[in-house]
Design brief:
heterodimer, A: 112 residues, four-stranded antiparallel sheet, 9 strands, globular, B: 112 residues, mainly beta, 10 strands, 47% strand
Chain lengths: 112, 112
């Protein structure tokens, strides 16, 4: 699976949009971009995933560049509960082994 | 509906003892994964079950680790002769085939 690069940390003010970047310059055509987050002492929580079109759900939006070499996760109105480590993962959708390969992620701190 | 559940939530054991960790996946999910997360580290893949196929054991760190999945549902991860370096949070995830993985809350294992 392609490697991803994320900044180690960022912060944003409560109520503002949080834009979390991810680079995946070696992504191949059959690989999806997944985002998970892990709040302290909890298991990872699925957020969203996409192939090449932008995606939106009740939690977040995912913007993927046209060349698919990078993406941005957008939390439109960050709350204190959104403070967590966010993982950007590139993964083949099919195949015998579909394990997730987690990197170090980006620590988002939402300040009051 | 019910998510992935794991038991126990915490386990403290003495070095050299055997431990069993249990995972109840989401009903109907065909795939089940075990990961572990050592303190301050990312998630490390351990083993993957998919239906009736032979499990992918490529992530198991030593032959002290084993896992089984009975009846295509519940899974047990067994660690024999535990060592202090086995201390970690053990996470289970399930998915429908190779679709999105959903994680349980984890079992925190402490080996004294």
């Amino acid at each position: 699976d392609a490697k991803t690069t994320q900044p180690p940390s960022m912060d944003c003010a409560e109520g503002r949009a949080a834009n979390l970047p991810c680079n995946h310059s070696t992504i191949s055509g059959n690989e999806y971009v997944y985002w998970y987050r892990q709040i302290h002492s909890q298991g990872p929580q699925y957020i969203i995933h996409g192939l090449k079109n932008n995606e939106t759900n009740e939690m977040a939006s995912l913007i993927i560049t046209e060349d698919r070499k990078s993406s941005t996760l957008i939390l439109p109105h960050a709350t204190l509960r959104d403070t967590a480590v966010y993982y950007c993962i590139v993964r083949r959708y099919t195949g015998a082994n579909s394990k997730l390969t987690f990197g170090k992620g980006i620590t988002l701190s939402v300040r009051p | 509906g019910a998510g992935v559940s794991q038991s126990p939530s915490n386990k403290v054991t003495e070095k050299g003892k055997d431990v069993e960790l249990r995972c109840d996946p989401i009903s109907g999910h065909t795939a089940l994964y075990w990961y572990r997360q050592s303190l301050g580290q990312g998630l490390e893949f351990l083993i993957y079950f998919q239906g009736n196929s032979a499990p992918d054991k490529s992530g198991l760190p030593s032959d002290r680790f084993s896992a089984e999945r009975t009846g295509g549902s519940v899974s047990t991860l067994t660690i024999q002769r535990t060592q202090q370096e086995d201390s970690a949070v053990y996470l289970c995830a399930s998915s429908q085939y190779t679709d999105t993985q959903y994680f349980g809350p984890g079992t925190r294992l402490t080996v004294l």
